[in-house]
Amino acid sequence: MRQDEPFDDEEDEGPVTGLPDLVDEEGYDPAFEAGGRPGSGIGGVGQLGDNVVLGPVPDLVADEDQELHELDDQGVEEHHADPNGREARHALMRVEAELNQRWPETKIEPSTARISALLHLLGEPHRGYPVLHVAGTNGKGSTTRMIDALLTRMGLRVGRYTSPHLQLVTERIALDGQPISAAKYVDLYEDIAPFVSMVDGAGGPDAVPMSKFEVLTGMAFAAFADAPVEAAVIETGMGGTWDATNVADGEVAVITPISLDHTDYLGTDVTKIAAEKAGIIKPGSVAILAEQDENVLKVLLERAIEVDASVARAGSEFGVLEREIAVGGQLLKLQGLGGVYDQIFLPLHGAHQAANAALALAAVEAFFGAGKDRQLVAEAVREAFAEVEMPGRLERVRAAPTVILDSAHNPHGARALAQALTDEFAFRKLAAVVAVMSEKDALGILEALEPAISDIVVTVNSSPRSMPLLELNDLAISVFGEDRVRAESSLDAAVETAIGLVEQHDDPEEPLAGGGVLITGSVVTAGDARTLFGKEPA
After folding, report:
1. How many other β-carbons are positioned within 10 Å of the β-carbon of residue 209?
2. What is the pLDDT of residues 125-169, one digit of tens each?
3. Which residues are 8's β-sheet partners?
4. CB pairs under 8 A, 24+ apart, for 123-127?
5. I need a surface site. Which of 82, 118, 170, 377 has the fewest CB within 10 A?
6. Which fold has domain 395-533?
7. Mean pLDDT within 212-216
């Protein structure tokens, strides 16, 4: 789908034993060069002009009484307010308070009419760049971040839109792999606010106003057009067909594993959920499908046939060939659409993340038009995966005892989490701190976690939708038994209790080291824990 892009045309020279510098002695970088040589393709420096300056340049202004020679560029450096400083954060809080008056993401009126109207008023910003669209139940955020990392390493400027956020709403809109600043978020909102008001008023007094998610989606599309980006990776919020992000026509549609979640909105029939999520597969696109339940796969394939989309399936056209647990992650051999990529170090834990990596690789290959005997530059792929960061996904935030947090929030995610903990960690004792949202399948989450943990401390998170403590405590006792359950009314107290549990030594012969604490149950819980341990939004 992309011409003149980052492919490796040389024959396979055998296994790679290291990760050498990708820039040779003459300064040639094959991935960046293939991503767009001067004057050609996407991502090349030449598109920015031959005099592009690589690096930040301070704005210089001269004093009014200072006479400068026409070649004299000296002056006084202009100082700007910190875009993430106190003033910007206060403005962000003001904007968030205003946006929070709108319908939240948990309240939906299925229609793309409002977001379409807003984007029309904004000049159709979502039409200005190619889109890779990601939907599914689990692994959407991880896959989206991996796609972002791969595209960036191939020389493109990338925009990324994800939801929900862990700590700060600015995480949802990312440019160049980093969340936008608080000041940029405020500017984006203030730029589109008049048009949002126009959409709100156009439907009459009884019409549904734009939801917060719809406004944020408009802000993201506008930000990417303004940057401008050369590709945008867009994660759906909930569902697919009626999701606000689905106004974009993705050249590549990525479907991660589908299971039950958001049942109050999407229902309890997994095939109907699949049909909703399949709506992101557009005419003429390429659908990249993770391994799915047989009935789910049938629904997805029917949609692809209906719109004449090409299809690549995990386990058939691409997948994980080999997986070896390594220090700090795992070493992978992946089958891509264009061939085999070996010696891939992924600094993440769990077989589910290996599957996400294969899915992301296939998506990027499809975006660049990879196929038989036409690979991406293998070394660039290795480097991109080696640098992937995944906040809130089996993330270690403390040592001695080890504290890990994970945003698993449904039974499918909790099972993958428990399996990773069992396969890749050797804790002497592992206590879990769990807070779950009221609308979630808390019982299913607890049952999935039970085999992997010794004790559980139930608590609440910062959301008003957090399941009441007594209710969660009763569910935990039904799964773990009363002796293995503790309850604390705050997250910090729950963490302290869990640390105390894993540091107890009833047997004097028992080793002192080897205890661990897991914090999980919700994206909000993981975000609260990141803040508690001093982690910056990412």
Report:
1. 17
2. 999 999 999 999 999 999 999 999 999 999 999 999 999 999 999
3. 375
4. 125/221, 125/222, 125/224, 125/225, 125/226, 126/221, 126/224, 126/225, 126/232, 126/247, 126/248
5. 82
6. Protein-Tyrosine Phosphatase; Chain A (3.90.190)
7. 97
The three-class DSSP label of residue 513 is coil
Q: Which long-range contacts (CB under 8 A, 24 or more apart) does 247-250 make?
A: 247/112, 247/115, 247/116, 247/119, 247/126, 248/126, 248/131, 248/133, 248/221, 249/131, 249/282, 249/285, 250/131, 250/132, 250/133, 250/280, 250/282, 250/285
| 404-431: burial string, b at 16+ Cβ within 10 Å, e else | bbbbbbbbbbbbbbbbbbeeebebebbb
How do 485-487 and 455-458 pair as beta strands?
Answer: parallel
Please list the residues that pair with 322 across neighbouring strands.
333
Beta bridge pairs of residue 325? 330
Question: Residue 190: helix, strand or coil by DSSP?
Answer: helix
For residue 51, pLDDT over 50 is answered with: no
| Distance between CA atoms of residues 483 and 502, nearest Å | 15
User: Could you state, in order of their start, the residue ranges of all structural domains in the chain?
Assistant: 86-387, 395-533
SS3 of residue 115 by DSSP: helix
Tell me how long the chain is.
538
Q: Give the distance from CA 6 to its chain's centroid.
A: 23
Name the CATH superfamily for 86-387.
Mur-like, catalytic domain (3.40.1190.10)
CA pair distance 21, 482, nearest whole angstrom: 55
Find out whether 280 and 244 touch, Cβ atoms under 8 Å.
no
Residue 481 — very low, low, confident or very high, per pLDDT cuts 50/70/90?
Answer: very high
With 80 as the cut, is the pLDDT of residue 30 above it? no
Per-residue 3-state assignment (H helix, E strand, C coil) for 285-323: CEEEECCCCHHHHHHHHHHHHHCCCEEEEECCCEEEEEE
Q: What is the CA radius of gyration of the chain?
A: 24
Name the β-bridge partners of 160.
Answer: 174, 233
Question: What residues contact 188, with CB distance under 8 A and at least 6 apart?
Answer: 173, 180, 219, 222, 223
Q: 18 vs 9, 59, 344, 345, 431, CA distance in Å?
A: 20, 42, 10, 10, 37
Q: What is the mean pLDDT of residues 410-415?
A: 95
| CA distance readout (Å), 325 to 234, 342, 348, 379, 402 | 30, 14, 10, 21, 19
Cite the DSSP H helix spans in 291-434.
294-306, 351-368, 378-386, 411-424
Q: State the chain's mean pLDDT as an integer.
A: 87
Contact present, 250 and 280 (Cβ < 8 Å): yes
